[in-house]
Write a structure and sequence with these properties.
Layout lengths: L14 H4 L38 H14 L5 E4 H4 L13 E5 L4 E7 L7 H15 L3 H9 E6 L4 H6 L4 E2 L7 E2 L13 H13 L3 E8 L13 E4 L16 H17 L7 E3 L6 E4 L4 H7 L15 E7 L12 H21 L20 E4 L2 E4 L3
Parallel strand pairs: 3-4, 3-7, 7-11, 8-9, 10-12
Antiparallel strand pairs: 1-2, 2-4, 5-6, 8-11, 12-13
Subcellular location: Secreted
Protein name: Tat (Twin-arginine translocation) pathway signal sequence
InterPro entries: Peptidase_M14, TAT_signal
């Protein structure tokens, strides 16, 4: 495997320019509810899923190598050690992998499996990488010409091998760290966080997307099974996001999800809602990775210019720890993520996303908002 010879994108953008491209986020999975019986067009996610059938770290390395060798369009695979970050391996010493593809002026950050028991982010991103590396159709060509993609299929290789949400510190404490809550002032306890944060400051993405899993969930008001939840880690209209970049991210992240909702609604097997916790709370966390991106966190002096970027996340139903993936649902669970990414990225590249009505965010099914779940507790919706 060879490291990309492209220099990291160091260009700084104005808030107005950033409002033309956006996305990435991170969130804790919902607690699993009672098992749901999936729609006939989406196989049931009930039942145990053998972890032997789930992509592991060795599989990831092999798949990335294959994608690089068979690429028609310059897909590069490398480790963070090759990229030159000061910290470059996981807590247990595994190499941290990135794949890049595209020659466009704007960098895009795509990330999966920051939680080890949420496997389909990795598989979804490998599928997207295959298309970016080999598909010569007009849509995929446009994406390569518009963007340079920085893809991290498996952010948390140690947790993935252990089939747990966290990584485990190797300092003798055996402390478990949620990598999705480890970018923040006084945090960065795990080496994975240090490594990927430094790489983020090298890339300066225009926007980012994070792929997660959640517990089994039913749609508010209908009781229908939800297959995909659409989320933003700093709630639109909430205590924080309207004050970031003059409100540009508050608008763009809504537009991104409105576009995804409209396009995926055409697929008969996808049922979407907005990501909420506790039944009716929007998340507004500042301690998450994608939240830190939107807030322009400067850790250890690596981001003195205060680069920030908007971000959204997708939540697929089921996870391996709860035994709620359902082997028969695997194909469509991955397919809905791939379709969501393809529609979002193409919509961003063509400008369709930026023309969406952000107010239609309220049309995406959700429970009436009663408050905001923050790092320090709940803030009532009437704040």
């Amino acid at each position: 495997m060879t490291i990309s010879t492209r220099s990291p994108n160091r260009r700084r953008r104005t808030a107005a320019a950033l409002a033309a491209g956006a996305a990435f986020a991170i969130a804790a999975p919902l607690a699993a509810t009672a098992p749901a019986v999936a729609d006939a067009n989406f196989p049931s996610t009930e039942g145990e899923t053998s972890t032997a059938s789930i992509l592991d770290y060795a599989d990831l390395v092999a798949e990335l190598d294959k994608l690089e060798r068979t690429s028609r369009f310059g897909l590069d695979v490398f480790t963070l050690a090759e990229a030159g970050t000061e910290v470059s391996t996981s807590e247990q010493g595994r190499d941290l992998y990135v794949a890049t593809v595209g020659e466009g002026p704007e960098a895009v950050w795509l990330q999966g499996r920051i939680h080890g028991n949420e496997p389909y982010g990795a598989e979804s991103l490998l599928a997207v990488l295959k298309e970016l590396g080999t598909n010569g159709s007009p849509d995929w060509t446009l994406l390569r010409e518009t963007y340079t993609f920085h893809v991290i299929p498996m952010y948390n290789p140690d947790g993935s091998e252990l089939n747990i949400r966290h990584t485990i510190l190797q300092d003798g404490s055996e402390k478990r760290i949620d990598l999705n809550r480890d970018w923040g002032v006084g945090k960065f306890e795990a080496v994975e966080s240090e490594a990927f944060y430094e790489y983020w400051t090298m890339v300066d993405p225009a926007f980012a997307v994070d792929i997660h899993h959640q517990g089994l969930k039913r749609e508010y008001g209908t009781g229908d099974d939800v297959t995909l939840s659409l989320g933003i880690s700093l709630a639109p209209g909430g205590p924080t996001l309207p004050g970031v970049e003059g409100g540009a991210y508050d608008v763009l992240t809504r537009q991104m999800h409105v576009h995804v909702y409209d396009e995926l609604a055409k697929a008969g097997y996808v049922n979407m809602d907005r990501y909420q916790v506790g039944g009716s709370l929007e998340i507004d966390i500042k301690g998450g990775v994608v939240s830190a991106m939107m807030l322009g966190l400067d850790h250890d002096g690596l981001n003195p210019e205060g680069h920030s970027n908007p971000a959204i996340f997708f939540e697929t139903s089921g996870n391996t720890s709860d035994g709620s993936l359902g082997q028969k649902a695997r194909g469509k669970s991955i397919k809905q993520n791939v379709l969501a990414l393809q529609e979002l990225l193409t919509g961003m590249a063509t400008g369709e996303v930026q023309q969406e009505d952000p107010a239609r965010w309220e049309e995406i099914p959700h429970a009436p908002v009663t408050g905001y779940q923050t790092d320090d507790g709940i803030i009532p919706a009437s704040f």
